[in-house]
Amino acid sequence: MSTRQKILISLSILTIFLPFVLSEASEMTKFKTAYVQMTPSHLDKKANVDKMVRFIGEAAAQGAKLVVFPELIVTGYVGPLSPPEWNGFYQASESIPGPTTNLLQKVAAEKGVYVVFGMVERGVSKLGPCMHNVAVLLGPRGLIGYHRKVHPPLGEKLYWQAGDEFKVFDTELGRIGLLVCYDLWFPESSRIEGLKGAQIIIDVANWPAFDVDSWAALGPGIAISNMVWFIGVNRVGGEDFWPGHGASMIVNPSGKVISNGTDKEGIFYGDIDLAEVTSRRSFPPVWFDRRPELYELIIKK
User: Which residues in the chain land under pLDDT 70?
Assistant: First the structure.
């Protein structure tokens, strides 16, 4: 028997028994998640943040440990480019940390929850002032981090400076990777976060009502191909030129939707168990069977 065959057999045995070895520790990895299909008021930050605070309180009262809101929920979505619209969003943008993250972090600390939400970050590029479309992760003990949207589509390129990194954050609820809306469409986004050890991938979105089928397909695909929990949170309603349709979801590492939102505003819930990531990855051993030496074309084209 060759050395490679011995290694393969040993790894196969390990992947079969590892979930049972870790099962006792994994009992503490179960928690309730709340996802909020909220309709934002255009550029009315106070109204939107006040509404978020109420939703966080309600979710925490129901035992949720993680509360997720849609993309740009603090401001609403951008309209067709015009000087007043660009200026309105720039005035609504903030540094991170800043007033909105500080306020919501206090709420997260008071309620003992983690919160993910979308907002506009004010930044500076080589060309001067700029804005980023970000997903922020807060915890009971402070700001954990944020992800800048890497793939702004269509007219968003006229507003947002694209991000250049996919981050994964360590939390008491597991390793969480963040995406913003259109990032979801690029399998490389979630694969990189999976390779960085994500157990949960969260996409905050303003997915339009005229493209329901792609939203329904992409989330489960990410979950099963990376063997992670996927949480996709989409707004409802909003601006007439880009209305959201809801249909938010929690998908388990086998690609099964275990909780689905409707087309109405409100809080929806689902239970996450990180032990399912370990057990799902035991078979088939997708991560071990990858052939990265053959994937060079992906980064060349």
Answer: 1-28, 301
Closest by Cα among 116, 103, 127, 178 to 148 = 178
Q: Which residue has the tokens 């997720």?
A: 68
The overall average pLDDT reported for the chain is 91
Tokens found for residue 119: 């907002």
Look at the block and give the residue holding tokens 């981050």: 167
pTM above 0.85, yes or no: yes
- CATH number for the domain spanning 290: value is 3.60.110.10
Domain assignment present for residue 234? The answer is: yes
* Residues annotated catalytic, as ranges: 71, 149, 181
246, 211 in Cβ contact below 8 A?
A: no
pLDDT at position 127, please? 81
E strand segments, the chain: 30-37, 64-68, 114-125, 128-139, 142-148, 168-171, 174-180, 200-205, 229-234, 236-237, 244-245, 249-251, 257-260, 266-273
239 residue type, one letter = E
Structural domain count of the chain? 1
Q: Which domain holds residue 151?
A: 32-300
Enter the tokens of residue 248. 């938010």
Answer for the pair 22, 275: CB distance below 8 angstroms, yes or no: yes
Q: Do the beta carbons of residue 231 and residue 243 sit within 8 Å?
A: no
Q: What gap in Å lies between CA 87 and CA 285, rounded to an integer?
A: 50
Q: Which two tokens stand for residue 87?
A: 């200026």
In a domain, 18, yes or no: no
Beta bridge partners of 148: 134
